[in-house]
Design goal:
4-stranded antiparallel β-sheet, YbaK/aa-tRNA-synt-asso_dom_sf, aminoacyl-tRNA deacylase activity, Ala-tRNA(Pro) deacylase, YbaK/aa-tRNA-synth-assoc-dom
């Protein structure tokens, strides 16, 4: 793993045809005055392997899954479920949290459209009003969270309380 400053990391992104805008994440963090560290590492989309590359515990990883919730009236809503890297998203709990009748992982084309990034690189931040963020209570016990920055080869570490103070989110028990 290599620690770089954000200018160097952003310059690398500009040369790529990235789906999700790494710059948008950095701009958001800077605008909100969030102290953060940028980590560049070999591409990895699996939480445990990414945590090893980044040099932190799996509990600190913010694993993010896009969940589709079906409601009684047939309407669908979408949740960015954020859980600790050592936990799994409990789909039944997500459905219950949103008063839905059932939940499943969103189809990859919908998840990519809502997050503007490849699966495995979804950050715990939503820039789309159709995608609400629900953070699992289990993630709150760690001082710092580390997450993919919209790319499989770049991650960001931030203080958990600071993260919770700057994003629009709800907190629920959505893991198993």
């Amino acid at each position: 793993m290599v620690l770089v400053n954000e200018t160097e990391a952003v310059a690398g992104v500009a040369r790529e045809d990235a789906v999700f805008s790494f710059r948008r994440i950095i701009d958001f963090l800077v605008a909100e005055k969030v102290n953060h560290r940028v980590m560049v590492h070999p591409p990895e989309g699996q939480t445990v392997a990414a945590s090893l590359l980044r040099g932190h515990s799996v509990e600190q990883a913010a694993k993010c899954m896009v969940v589709e919730v079906k409601h009684d009236n047939g309407q669908l809503s979408y949740v960015l479920a954020v859980v600790s890297g050592n936990r799994r998203v409990a789909l039944k709990n997500v459905a219950g949290f949103l008063e839905g009748v059932k939940a499943k992982l969103a189809p990859s084309h919908i998840a990519s459209q809502l997050t503007r990034c490849v699966m495995g690189a979804v950050p715990p931040i939503s820039f789309d009003d159709r995608l609400q963020v629900v953070v699992d209570r289990g993630l709150l016990s760690t001082e710092e969270i580390v997450f993919s920055a919209g790319r499989l080869d770049v991650s960001i570490g931030v203080n958990t309380d600071t993260y919770l103070n700057v994003i629009r989110h709800q907190i629920g028990s959505i893991s198993e």
